[in-house]
């Protein structure tokens, strides 16, 4: 006896299961891949057609934000797609979410020209602040470099040491030297083959700073902290010239290009304002953009002035240390790069000197113990040595 359960009758092909809705075939205007990407972006942004439309009519860039506006720029349809969407007169519910969104946006006159203008406006304050901070940093770097007592003292120590090394030669009475020479100090070795000229100069300044500290405190202390006072002072130069290191990462041509780009971007605002006469709705947008245009023009003019002032300060500091700015016109910020690279080497040498102090290793010898090649001469290229030659009383102990 067969107890198996009888097989169920085959389901009719094509018959719809009860309660299962039929799949609605969407009508496509856009390329399927593009429509899918736009639909994904819309879900991620979580914004409605009404919110976007209202913001475009009001010119409210703050409401949408730069991220959303940048996304809208990417959604812009081609001319052909725009015509198809405008001409579509069928059931809107049959369109995909991307097509419905774009069709609603395109109902606003010059919608994507508005988007371009609003994106410029949304980013304007951030870009202006970036430029302003950059030019302020350049000015601060110039002031810090010129006003750093320790940096100028270090230059004088290098100059004195170089003159001692070159005594008896036509390079033995230099008044100043090109800052590039600082980068060569670590390459000049002493007779021991290990100690560099920069180690020697750093030790000279450490002794000078220690003596100055002892004189100011009116007592001589042999404590560990006091012995490290001079080293701490020299090690602090890198932090003291922090703005110089920031300035070294900048490119003035790039900054100038940003200012030009910002000024050129105003044409987007002016261009869209020219369309006002052709527009019968969204007048709030034009009023808002007119107010923004006036303020933006004033801001750009102020930034132009800050750019000119910063470049002037950079030229002044370059002339102060190099004597000839013509050679540096192609790379006006090069002076900061030279100092930054030197500070990096100085930090390393200070760490090594610190270890020597812990090991009680003495950096001995004199300037004559170092050999400098003819290519490392100290030409007279600036006046900073002469300007400060009468202000070196506190350095006498290191002479």
UniProtKB/TrEMBL annotation:
GO terms for biological process: actin nucleation. Residues 286-313 form a coiled coil. It is a single-pass membrane protein. PROSITE patterns: FH2 (PS51444). It comes from the Eukaryota. Residues 1-374 form the FH2 domain. Pfam families: FH2. Residues 1-26 are annotated as: Disordered. It is found in: Membrane. InterPro entries: FH2_Formin, FH2_Formin_sf, Formin-like_plant. GO terms for cellular component: membrane. The keyword Iron-sulfur does not apply. Keywords: Coiled coil, Membrane, Signal, Transmembrane, Transmembrane helix. Transmembrane segments: none annotated. One of its GO terms (molecular function) is actin filament binding. The keyword ATP-binding does not apply. Its main location: membrane. Belongs to the formin-like family. Class-I subfamily. This is Formin-like protein. It comes from Oryza barthii. The lineage of its organism: Eukaryota, Viridiplantae, Streptophyta, Embryophyta, Tracheophyta.
